[in-house]
Structure formats: structure tokens, C-alpha cells
Design a protein that fits this description.
- The protein has about 575 residues and is of the alpha+beta class.
- The protein has two domains: about 350 residues, no CATH class; about 90 residues, no CATH class.
- The chain contains 21 helices and nine strands.
- Strands 1, 4, 5, 6, 8 and 9 form a six-stranded antiparallel β-sheet that branches. A three-stranded antiparallel β-sheet has the order 2-3-7, with no helix packed on it.
- The protein is globular.
- It starts with a helix and ends in a 10-residue tail after the last helix.
Length: about 575
């Protein structure tokens, strides 16, 4: 199994190297800037007219669609405001440093233009054969758009639509499903050990049942109860859940920032400075370059707000409206809420608390040497646990890491290990192997807690108010992940529906729920593996969707500017008041 997991992650790293090459990131930025200027800075219209639409000023129950504007926004937000806002941001800061936050802001701003464009385009081409249950998304844009260009283009449109659906399903299973479930299991099992103690008492200490597995089963059952009701039930649940969970989380984050109020100016200064200059290694932080801040900030923000990915148009296409641009402006609010508000608050909590460059929890008496564990593989030459700097005792299952530096090119990486019970109930370290052609070296004797994704955010809250992160972030993680899982199920469902028809939906739903459980079995063990998994899904969808937006961009912008002309001329009115 270890060999399979290692090979799988190496393959994902190679694919991600192509998908997330700097050239691809610059291209995404360029497309976002193009639509920003082409639309005349639609960000402003989204924050003004888009808010009025969302509040119901232009709702008409007789328009085709299944849900209102607010429910459509809530459904799309429930997919975007997920673990990416808690765990994804934590990963970006942990790997890219404070500068990653700056590039997240940039992506949030241009993401508003991308989201407005892609949703408007999807609304122009949505399928309303059943007015009460419309279907839309990039697959319908490609199918119908190319067909309108002439019979010879129809097969091209069908092929592109099918390709998009395949990439949609990859993203659904990875980022929309397994990434969410993994983080819930990670936080539930590590930050609330009382749960495992209860399980042990109920099962007599059985190794077959643990907090991770039960987390997956419970999350899968809850998701199944909602997704069986389709988009209308998902919209109803999201409409109630999203405002509550966002409000609760932001309130708690504000408390942390209030405690560290005097540090806020310094934190913002470090965010801007680190975006354009390398950040030195300190504590648990390995050090970051300008490139790493840019790359991780872009990746995490794109994963979180899904701008240009083509997922949100699927939810918005179910909205009740006969004005495509109107729903596009509602969608433009999503990156602002997701990235510039929720993600920023998470990042500020992690930076203010010092969780990102935290101190070691223990130190070896002397820096261990690394010994060979096979061809190009290395592990520390000791499994003995050092004394913790605090009075706390080591716990079985604790994840730790030491910092290793390559002797050939100086790259620093984490070498992880797990505390496990050996003979005669003695606790020791079970080290993972470190891959390197040349013998690397340990930078120091320091040992750090290994917090993955949302667990790092939980630790950040705990540093401010001990115990708060364990329970409050646990609640937030469950709410955020659950909302994302149910919405992304609908996205994947629409892809399956397009490819294989109605009969494929039930088997898909069963498979989707099984994947939730699989993600909670411990196959993912490091931050790098977690980052690989989520980037695959996001990257492939961007490559499939953005060309579609460019091909039909002129038509979208014509519709957008025509709507604004009619709005300024007073032709677009509040129909409820007329």
C-alpha cells in the first residue's frame, strides 16, 4: 500500500507541474484581467446591482428555474465556502508564507470578472426544456454554441462538452468530495481525542473502528439524505446553512483579531512585503520564495472561489430568471465573499496567532543523522521520542515532522512521522521515508507538530483561546465541508447526466458517498499529498472551461453591455413593485 500511495503521489506531482506551471497561472490572470476591462470593471456592478438582485428586488416566480437568486448564490457559495477557506488557506500560508495571501486577494478580484462572465455565458445557453428543472454549464455552452456555428462544428462541441464533464467529475471527487471529507476526519480525530476514547470504550478497543472511519460514514449518510432531494432540497439547505456558518466563523475570527489588534498593521505589511520578496525560514515555516507565494496563493484561491473553473454556472443555471446577465452579476459576489472576506479572515487568524511559524514541541538531545532505507530513500537513525518542551505527554497517533535539507540544491522539506505504540506499550516514532538521490541532512534537532489543512487553523484558534479551536473549528469544518459536499454532488450529477442520462444518477450518488468514506481511511498523510489531490481537480477544469469562455466571450460581453444599457435607460425595473 505504501508503494502504491507513493507512486500515486509522484504521478500527481508530475501532472500538477504541468497544470500549475507559472505560464498557466499567468494565463489565468491575463484572462481575468481581459474580462475585467472588457466588462468595464463588472466588480463594481456585482457589489451594487448584484446585491440588489440577490435581495430579491428583481425576483419573478414566473421566470424559468427551480430556485431563486439567493438560493442559487447560497448553493454556489456552499460549494465554494468550504474547507478550502479553512484548510486550503492554511495550506497556502504554511507552504507559501504571508505573501500567498496577497495573491489570493488578486485572484479574488479578477475572479469576480471570471465568475460573472462564465455564469452569464452559461445562462445564455442553459437548457430550459423543463422550465422547472433547467440544466446549464460549460457542457451545454459547448454543445449548443458549436452546433449553432454549423453542422460540421457539432461534433467538436460534443467532444469539448464531454471533456469538460470528465474534468468536472475529477474535480468533484477530489476537491469537492475527498478533500472536504479528509479535513473533517483530520480535525475530528486529532483535535477532539475524546471522540476516539468514547469509540474505544464502545468497541472494546477494536482497531477496525476509529474516529476517522465513523466520521466518513456519518458525513456520507448526512449527504445522502440531502442529495436525494435534488437541487431544490440542496438550495433550501444551503440557503439556511450558508449565512449561519459564515456568520459564526467570521464572528470567531474577529475575536482572535481583536485579541491581536495591535499586530494587524504589521501582519498586513508582511503580507504585501512577502508577496514581492522571499520569506526566511522560521520555526515550522520552511521559507518561501516570491514564486512559491504566488503559486500557492493562486492555487488555493482558485480552488476556494472556483473562478473560471466552470462549476458555479451549473448551480446558477437553476435560478429563476429570464435575464442571463442578472444571474452573472449575482455570481460575481462569490469570489468577494469567499476570498476577500472568509479566506482573508482565516489567513489573518493563522498569521496573528503565529501558528504558521510555530515553535517546536520537542528537541532531540543532538541532531539525528539520516540513514539509508533503500535506493534513494532516507529516514532518521532514531525512533526514540524526545522529551516535550511542555508538560504534555506524547499521544499515540500524533503526527510530527522534522525539517530536512537537500545537500545538492538546498531545498527544505518536511520529513513526517507518527507516534505509535511498540512492544511493551512503549511509544516510538514511525518515520516516513524521504526521497532524495543524495543524502540529505536534518536542519536541526527540533520536532514540530504536523498540522494538516484545517487542523492548522484549529491550532491557530487554540493558541489564542485554549480549547476553542478544537470545538469551534470542528463545528465550522463540519458545516463548511457538508455544504460543499452536497453542492459538488449536484455539479458532478449534471456532468453524469449529460454524459450518460438519467439512469446513471443513482449509481453516481452511491459512488459519491462511498468516496467520502474512502477519503477518511488515512490514505492522505502529508500536506504535499493534500495539495496534490486538490490541485488536480481544479487544474483540469480550468484548462477545459477557460477556452470555452474565450471562444464565446464576445457574445457574453455583448449581452452584458446590452443589459447595462437597458438598466441605465430604466428599462430594467423592479417587477415586484410594478
Amino acid at each position: 500500500m505504501d508503494h502504491f500511495v507513493s507512486t500515486f503521489n509522484q504521478i500527481m506531482e508530475v501532472i500538477n507541474g504541468v497544470l500549475w506551471h507559472d505560464a498557466a497561472l499567468y494565463a489565468i490572470l491575463g484572462i481575468g484581467i481581459l474580462f475585467t476591462f472588457w466588462s468595464g470593471f463588472c466588480q463594481y456592478r456585482a457589489l451594487t446591482h448584484g446585491v440588489a438582485i440577490t435581495l430579491g428586488k428583481y425576483d419573478d416566480p414566473d421566470d424559468p428555474g427551480a430556485i431563486n437568486h439567493f438560493q442559487a448564490l447560497s448553493t454556489a457559495l456552499s460549494a465554494t465556502v468550504g474547507i478550502g477557506n479553512i484548510g486550503g488557506v492554511a495550506t497556502a500560508v504554511a507552504l507559501g508564507g504571508p505573501g500567498a495571501v496577497f495573491w489570493m486577494w488578486i485572484v479574488g478580484l479578477i475572479g469576480m470578472a471570471l465568475k460573472t462572465t462564465e455564469v452569464t455565458l452559461a445562462m445564455l445557453y442553459r437548457n430550459t426544456d423543463d422550465p422547472d428543472n433547467p440544466h446549464g454549464g460549460a457542457m451545454w455552452v459547448a454543445d449548443k454554441g458549436f452546433r449553432q456555428m454549423g453542422p460540421k462544428w457539432a461534433p467538436v462541441g460534443k467532444a469539448i462538452a464531454s471533456l469538460f464533464c470528465v474534468t468536472l467529475l475529477i474535480a468533484t471527487i477530489t476537491g469537492g468530495n475527498m478533500f472536504q471529507a479528509f479535513n473533517v476526519a483530520e480535525v475530528t480525530s486529532k483535535d477532539v481525542p475524546q471522540i476516539q476514547y468514547l469509540i474505544n470504550s464502545w468497541t472494546g478497543g477494536s482497531q477496525l473502528v476509529n474516529a476517522r472511519l465513523l466520521t466518513g460514514v456519518l458525513l456520507a449518510v448526512l449527504a445522502a439524505l440531502v442529495i436525494i432531494g435534488g437541487i431544490k432540497r440542496i438550495g433550501q439547505v444551503a440557503g439556511a446553512l450558508v449565512p449561519f456558518m459564515c456568520g459564526l466563523y467570521l464572528l470567531l475570527a474577529c475575536y482572535v483579531l481583536f485579541v491581536h489588534f495591535n499586530d494587524i498593521p504589521t501582519i498586513f505589511a508582511s503580507i504585501v512585503r512577502s508577496a514581492f520578496a522571499s520569506t526566511e525560514a522560521q520555526g515550522a515555516f520552511l521559507g518561501g520564495t516570491i514564486g512559491s507565494a504566488f503559486s500557492y496563493g493562486m492555487q488555493r484561491a482558485l480552488f476556494s472561489n472556483e473562478a473560471g473553473q466552470g462549476s458555479a454556472p451549473i448551480a446558477h443555471s437553476a435560478a429563476k430568471t429570464d435575464e442571463p446577465v442578472r444571474e452573472g452579476l449575482v455570481a460575481g459576489l462569490e469570489p468577494f465573499i469567499d476570498t476577500l472576506v472568509v479566506c482573508t479572515m482565516t489567513a489573518l487568524v493563522i498569521l496573528a496567532s503565529g501558528a504558521w511559524n510555530r515553535e517546536p514541541i520537542a528537541s532531540f538531545a543532538s541532531t539525528p543523522d539520516l540513514k539509508s532505507a533503500g535506493d534513494g530513500k532516507w529516514i532518521p537513525d532514531t525512533i526514540e521520542l524526545p522529551q516535550k518542551t511542555s508538560k504534555e505527554a506524547w499521544q499515540e497517533g500524533e503526527s510530527i515532522f522534522v525539517i530536512v535539507e537537500s545537500t545538492s540544491h538546498g531545498e527544505r522539506r518536511r520529513l513526517t512521522g507518527t507516534v505509535h505504540r511498540r512492544d511493551q506499550n512503549r511509544l516510538a516514532i514511525d518515520w516516513d521515508v524521504f526521497d532524495s538521490a543524495d543524502k540529505p541532512r536534518l536542519v536541526s534537532a527540533d520536532v514540530f507538530n504536523n498540522y494538516l489543512g484545517a487542523a492548522l487553523t484549529s491550532h491557530a484558534f487554540n493558541r489564542v483561546v485554549p480549547g476553542m479551536g478544537s470545538w469551534i473549528v470542528l463545528l465550522a469544518v463540519w458545516l463548511f465541508a457538508f455544504s460543499t459536499v452536497i453542492s459538488w454532488n449536484y455539479y458532478g450529477e449534471q456532468g453524469i447526466l449529460y454524459l450518460f442520462g438519467e439512469r446513471s444518477i443513482l449509481p453516481y450518488r452511491v459512488f459519491y458517498c462511498v468516496c467520502i468514506v474512502v477519503a477518511c481511511t488515512g490514505l492522505i498523510r502529508t500536506e504535499r499529498e493534500l495539495n496534490n489531490l486538490t490541485n488536480i481537480g481544479t487544474g483540469v477544469m480550468l484548462f477545459a472551461n477557460l477556452p470555452i469562455c474565450l471562444i464565446f466571450g464576445k457574445q457574453t460581453m455583448n449581452a452584458y453591455h446590452d443589459y447595462l444599457r437597458r438598466l441605465k435607460a430604466g428599462e430594467v425595473t423592479d417587477r415586484r413593485g410594478s
